[in-house]
């Protein structure tokens, strides 16, 4: 079976274990960005965040 390998792979796995996990929740003030009506018609969502 092929495997994916890179420099400092073990350190990368250890560092991700130290990051806290977060649950996505709606903003309590109900803010919506952009044209929500147009976005709902297309069925697409844009979720912005970090890659960790």
Structure description:
This protein is mainly α. The protein has one domain (1-52). Helices cover 31% and strands 0% of the residues. The chain is built from two helices and no strands. The longest helix has 9 residues, at 9-17. The mean pLDDT is 75.
Largest sheet properties = none
Total beta-strand segments: 0
Provide the number of structural domains. Answer: 1
**H and E string:** HH
End-to-end distance, in Å? Answer: 26 Å
Strand content: under 5%
Helix proportion of residues, in percent? 25-40%
Overall body shape: elongated
Compute the CA-based radius of gyration.
Answer: 18 Å
The low-confidence parts are none
Structural class by helix and strand composition: mainly alpha
How does the SSE layout of this entry go?
Blueprint: H1 9-17, H2 36-42
What is shown here, in short?
This protein has one domain. Helices cover 31% and strands 0% of the residues.
Task: Kindly list the characteristics that best describe this protein.
52 residues; mainly alpha; elongated
